[in-house]
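Field reference: sequence -> structure
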Amino acid sequence: MTLLLGLDIGTTSVKAGLFDAAGRQLAADGREYRLAHPAPDHVEIDAEVWWSSSVAAVRGVLAAPGVDPRDVAAMAVSSQGETVVAVDSAGRPLAPALVWLDNRAVTEARELADRLPGAVVYDRTGVPDVNPTWPAAKLLWWRRHRPDVFGAAAKFLLVEDFILHRLTGRFVTEGGIQCTSMLFDIVRGAWWTEALDAVGIDPDRLAEIAAPASVVGGLAAGAAEAMGLYAGLPVVAGGMDQGAGAVGVGNTGSGVVSESTGGALTVQAAVARHGGDPSRQTPVYIHSAPGQYLYCPVCPTGGMALTWFRDALGGPEVDRARRDGGPAYDVLTAQAEDAPPGCDGLTMLPHLAGAFSPEYVPSARGAFIGITLAHTRSHFVRAVLEAVAFMLRRNVELLGRAGATADEIRSHGGGARSALWNQIKADVCGLPVVTLEGEDAAVRGDAMTAGVAVGVYPDLGAARAALVAPRGRFEPNPALRGVYDAAYGRYQRLFEALRPEFERPVAST
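Structure field:
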């Protein structure tokens, strides 16, 4: 039996999945970890946690009944983007990794923006703005504020790079993970010299560039022993989790938009070239599907808005879920069904951690507007679900203006478990919403990429036919189009009305 192993290192957990060549998922395992917040706007993690969690997750799937590790034909690795770690020549971390959520490098981002014009940055890297998320700003912060770390580092690695080194012994990277570093030219597929000069690093302090979705080495003996696999197993660079997830839901060609409502809301569309958006608003990544780019708008709060409501205001639902033995999310979404579409005028802005796309307004905040004495808890829960759907529609429209029109939306992530939320998204966007079998799209995409890289499948089309299967389809209700067009208009006007207030400097106390 031929098996394929996928490994995805996320922001707060590692997930592994084992699939056979016919597409059946034989085992899944995940290990969670916590981020450290040592100061305001600082978000860190010990990079060794990624490795220990990866070892545990892989051992977990290999322990499934009937699994023979010798049947694994290849493994692929994907990861979160932007998180960076400084390591010595042996790959040992010199300091905690700076997580993509870390915003300490505000001043450094402004300096880079002054030196590198925004239009040039977009044309070279595909990122629409210069902000503290990008590793370029984080490296400049290290250089200014931790010269001991900056000076001692042999390499600066992203998460995928770090794990690939532990697996193969090679310092290797690829464009799918480096595309949002602001150090990588996504058109030439090489380091961007002007950005490296602005940060003050030489390319030899970064990993060697390999082709996306390629075999980057064989599994080293020590890693094989740790994981319970065999030495020499082909290891494939799977790219960023967004690209891997798009592969995992079959978003590898035109006409499809995929979205993931996890903590954040992310939207993806495969495109053949960079440069299709003259407004320079649409983030452009390098796809895990070789030879393609990926439009990838990101909104910091998606499902996290519902989590906030549960934790801050959903005490009764949490108590009921605890009594009934089910998740509180199910209680909340069932309650939302009691409110009508459009919530009788109640409108929410879901920007609880700022707005990134289509507008970059990091100081944006959440709001409920239109509250009357007639509104109930059901209205408020449904308003949260509708707000995320409105944010999705705004980004689907952004992709359309950039040339990536959609016939359907493929939905994955935790939000896809809710039939009500899927239907709201379909009704708001006016497009069918399709859910897929299996929840870990990035892990599935890794398995598909691994299979193509070693010849189990001739191409991603064959891998998609084997591993991607639809589970549900939600058609938009034409009778609700007018209601949701009106509600969407309120949502847009509300953001524009409050935008000057969001952008007003906060007086210090």
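Note: The first strand starts at residue 3 and ends at 9.
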